[in-house]
Amino acid sequence: MDNSILRLPAEKLFEEELNALIKAEKDPIPEGWRMSPRSVKTYICGGKVGGTVITPKYIGHERLVEIAIATLVTDRALLLIGEPGTAKSWLSEHLTAAINGNSSRVIQGTAGTAEEQIRYSWNYAMLISNGPSEAAMLKSPVFTAMEDGAIARMEEISRCASEVQDTLISLLSEKRISVPELSLEVPAKKGFSIIATANTRDKGVNDMSAALKRRFNIVVLPAPETLEEEMNIVKTRVEQLSGSLDLNAALPKDEVIEKICTVFRELRNGETLDKKQKVKTTAGVLSTAEAISLLCNSMALAGSFGSGKISDEDIAAGLQGAVVKDDDKDSVAWKEYLENVMKKRGMAWMGLYKACRELNE
Fold first, then answer.
1. Beta bridge partners of residue 178, listed in sequence order
2. How many other CB atoms sit within 10 Å of the CB of residue 350?
3. Fewer CB in 10 Å around end: N or C, the chain?
4. Of residues 359, 358, 351, the one with CA closest to residue 309
5. Distance (Å, rounded) from C-alpha 270 to C-alpha 213?
6. What percent of the chain has pLDDT over 90?
7. Distance CA 80, CA 95 (A)
8. How far apart are CA 39 and CA 139, in angstroms?
9. For the packed helices 88-100 and 62-73, what is the interaxial angle rounded to 10 degrees?
10. Distance from C-alpha of 143 to C-alpha of 140, rounded to nearest angstrom
11. How far is the C-alpha of 18 from the C-alpha of 52, rounded, in Å?
């Protein structure tokens, strides 16, 4: 494993676990897959195979993972929908890593994504010099996935323009891609599919057409139901990320993680955890992914400019940036939360309260 690479793909990062599952495989393997659906689930949800411990990649409803995997066994595409930070991209990456051993066939949906990025484009120097040819083609991740009988990923599909989204309709219906310039049609091999993700917060940006939605099986990934579940997710991911980054700081203690998750859940839900007090919500989502990022940033501050242990000041700096995204609305909500909720929680919270208040002054 090359430790100089900033972010290794899932199939490299968890190569040992994947190889152990493949080696111990006893169940039928669908064509184009590297392991059975049961083994894919074990890789995603965690378990043990032989002497190898399989770490959970997705902590949540296992039935949703089963539905997602079962969808990919059929000829249907999979659409993962949820709030930002509900591990849609994370689950998509790990599904393709387990099934194909290659999670890099990905298209990032943006307002600038063009139809050519989903189908194919051309090397125009070669096109002008020699005319249309297969050598001059620049194949998209979807094109290569069709040729190889593999899975392509389409991130943030609702960010793409509607006419770009609808390029997928014929590909998912006919399971072939046409190249009129070469009088060529490339049929998809068995194992081909697409995993798309979409944020519910992006609803209305570029709504997917009913025709396109019918080509997908839709799985909604919910936010963590309980504080304990969210803490478990945050703790696991922070440990994983800190191992690949030179943060030079100790991992956050459980009470630190609990404070961050408590603040995020209360501002996200508009009430305290005991449901006794209403609080103003903020413009930001305050997702689990943001909690993970906040703690990693706090570790970086502690390691680079502090004692190596996360302090209340390190946490406060991250909280301020995560919560206050819209100055007019969020500043008021955050100040009220500090005075009406955090301040009244006693000495355990007083250090964080004072550090946050100091940044607000």
1. 185
2. 13
3. C
4. 351
5. 32
6. 76
7. 12
8. 31
9. 50
10. 5
11. 10
- What are the 10-residue block averages of pLDDT along the chain, 361 residues in total? 76 95 96 96 94 92 96 95 90 97 94 93 93 93 96 94 92 93 93 93 74 94 92 91 85 94 94 93 86 93 93 92 80 91 93 90 66
CATH of residue 53's domain is 3.40.50.300
| pLDDT tens for each residue of 136-168 | 999 999 999 999 999 999 999 999 999 999 999
- Looking at the structure, tell me whether residues 156 and 275 fall in a common domain: no
Q: Are residues 209 and 247 in the same domain?
A: no
- If you search the block for the tokens 């194949």, which residue do you land on? 139
Structure tokens at 94: 């790990």
**Domain shared by 246 and 216, yes or no:** no
CA 153/CA 257 separation, integer angstroms: 32
- Interatomic CA distance for residues 353 and 361, integer angstroms: 12
Q: Where are the alpha helices (DSSP H) in 113-209?
A: 115-118, 124-130, 141-148, 162-165, 167-174
The boundaries of the domain holding residue 305 are: 227-360
Residue 104 shares a structural domain with residue 65: yes
Closest to 295 in 3D by CA, of 243, 246, 235: 235
Neighbours of 145 (CB within 10 A): 25
Helix (H) or strand (E) holding 244: helix 227-244
Question: Given this model, what pLDDT does residue 361 score?
Answer: 66
How far apart (Å, rounded) are the C-alpha atoms in residues 271 and 112? 38
Q: Establish if 139 belongs to a structural domain.
A: no
Question: Residues 264, 284: contact at Cβ < 8 Å?
Answer: no
Residue 119: inside a domain: no
Using one digit for the tens of pLDDT, what is the confidence trace for 244-301? 788 889 999 999 999 999 999 999 999 999 999 999 988 878 889 999 999 999 999 9
Residues 19 and 149 in one domain: yes
